[in-house]
Design brief:
Number of helices: 8
CATH topology: Rossmann fold
Strand order of the largest sheet: 3-2-1-4-5-7-6
Structural class: alpha/beta
Number of strands: 7
Helix content: 25-40%
Oligomer: single chain
Largest sheet: 7 strands, mixed
Strand content: 5-15%
CATH class: Alpha Beta
Length: 254
């Protein structure tokens, strides 16, 4: 099974940015997971509605058909704590693909988590006794506060969007805080759909961090996610005239 993990800085970020992709994955080939940081105060302490927001995220993940993971509560500036928590989670779960928000997001906590995910993906793939392994393929998605997001490819989620929308509507407390979230989610998916020649789509940006170009080739990603609207690399002779090997999921250590 190919393990796909979406990491949300807040509850509702995953449903907004990649809910359609997760809901539409073939369950005979893919194992979707959602990991979320709970919303907390400046010092990392729980707020009045923290438990409710986490419960809503758990219910939303169930709607998407994904396993749910609650990450530790952290102060808004605790980057090292985020890296440590994510590294441990990635090492235990060993995902093949990790999806999170864009590092250029306007929300400081979103940007911190995106940066921490990038570092943790690399650290988690390094075995204690061997050389570097193959890191999880890292993708970035749009969020409510993303500015000037430019995807590398789109995935048609027209058929899966109703499930993603149903999952987002589970976030009653979250939508009370950001009532325009649902409206913007529809607009973003419609705009992406226009660019992808589809009714509704989700856009993703490839990470080019150290090690990402080792991830069993970009053709793995295109085949994993089922027909994005960009031309995927095709197997064929390389520069030396040698046929490219068939694409397989990257091996996990452990």
């Amino acid at each position: 099974m190919i393990r796909v993990l979406a990491v949300g800085p807040h509850p509702d970020d995953v449903e907004y940015g990649c809910g359609g992709l997760l809901a539409g994955l073939d369950r005979e080939r893919f194992e979707p997971h959602v990991a979320v940081f709970p919303p907390v105060g400046r010092d990392g302490g729980a707020l009045h509605g923290t438990a409710l927001r986490v419960q809503e995220a758990r219910e939303a993940a169930a709607v998407l058909g994904a396993a749910f993971h609650e990450l530790p509560a952290l102060a808004a500036t605790d980057r090292s704590g985020a890296v440590e928590a994510l590294t441990s989670h990635f090492a235990d779960l060993r995902p093949d693909v990790v999806i999170t928000v864009d590092p250029d997001d306007a929300h400081p906590w979103h940007a911190l988590v995106a940066d921490a995910v990038r570092e943790a993906v690399f650290i988690a793939q390094t075995p204690e006794e061997a050389g570097p392994g193959i890191p999880a393929q890292l993708l970035h998605m749009a969020a409510y506060t993303t500015v000037d997001f430019r995807p590398d490819f789109y995935v048609d989620v027209s058929r899966a969007f109703p499930t993603a929308w149903k999952a987002l509507r589970r976030h009653v407390a979250g939508l009370a805080v950001t009532p325009a979230l649902g409206h913007q989610m529809r607009l973003v998916h419609q705009t992406a759909g226009c660019r992808a020649s589809a009714e509704l789509a989700e856009g993703f940006r490839l990470s080019h961090d150290f090690g990402q170009d080792w991830c069993a080739g970009r053709s793995l990603l295109f085949r994993l996610l089922g027909g994005p609207h960009e031309s995927p690399p095709r197997p064929g002779p390389d520069a030396d005239g040698v046929a490219a090997p068939p694409v397989e999921a990257p091996a996990r250590h452990g």
